[in-house]
Specification:
heterodimer, A: about 120 residues, mainly beta, 4-stranded antiparallel beta sheet, globular, B: about 110 residues, 6-stranded mixed beta sheet
């Protein structure tokens, strides 16, 4: 158990709909990361938050947005869903090392989104 | 072009055999290099983290090596088990917070 909790585990929805994925980081970790993994593909970095503030942005579509709340949990919002958005969405959390480097990443078990 | 390249893309070995996975990177300045194991449909799990000053680190039957001069790392798995079947991902961390992921090597261990 990594200590990172993601909900829901599975989600099936239709094109054009909007969904929200939730992540609770490991206790004490201030950084939260979101990744997308399509079938047989590598992990694609979407966005990172640190203590409520956006820290880095990757290949995140404009239809997608995220935020980190004061209690440090994070939500990833996916709107106007398309078939190609079907994927595993992983959340990870980490502490920051001295000098600002990223500490060890702890991944949740992912949310599997299927868009029909 | 991905700044972290892994090879081979996939590998099949017999149970009990050893294998070595490769990771070449071009990113700099380099902070640390990580290897993760990802079982199918599960979240990745950290195996090793090495800073630029370390050239080897072990975690049970997994041994990672790093040559910062040639920007190469390898993950050696000894006496493979069926449970080693997974994707192995190399991640290079730049100074600061950016992480660069390789696409992974898919390993299948057969009886």
């Amino acid at each position: 158990d990594s200590g990172v909790t993601q909900t829901p585990k599975h989600l099936i929805t239709a094109t054009g709909q909007r969904v929200t994925l939730r992540c609770s980081p490991r206790s004490g970790d201030l950084s939260v990361y979101w990744y997308q993994q399509s079938l047989d593909q590598g992990l694609q970095f979407l966005i990172q938050y640190y203590n409520g503030e956006e820290r880095a942005k990757g290949n995140i579509l404009e239809r997608f947005s995220a935020q980190q709340f004061p209690d440090l949990h994070s939500e990833l919002n996916l709107s106007s869903l398309e078939l190609g958005d079907s994927a595993l969405y992983f959340c990870a959390s980490s502490a920051l090392l001295a000098g600002g480097a990223t500490g060890e990443l702890f991944f949740g078990e992912g949310s599997r989104l299927t868009v029909l | 072009k991905n700044q972290v390249e892994q090879s081979p893309q996939s590998l099949i070995i017999l149970e009990g055999k050893n294998c070595t996975l490769q990771c070449n990177y071009t990113v700099s300045p380099f902070s640390n290099l990580r290897w993760y194991k990802q079982d199918t449909g599960r979240g990745p799990v950290s195996l090793t983290i090495m800073t630029f000053s370390e050239n080897t680190k072990s975690n049970g039957r997994y041994t990672a090596t790093l040559d910062a001069d040639t920007k190469q790392s390898s993950l050696h798995i000894t006496a493979s088990q069926l449970s080693d079947s997974a994707s192995y991902i190399c991640v290079v961390s730049l100074s600061g917070y950016a992480l660069n992921f390789g696409k992974g090597t898919s390993l299948l261990v057969t009886p």
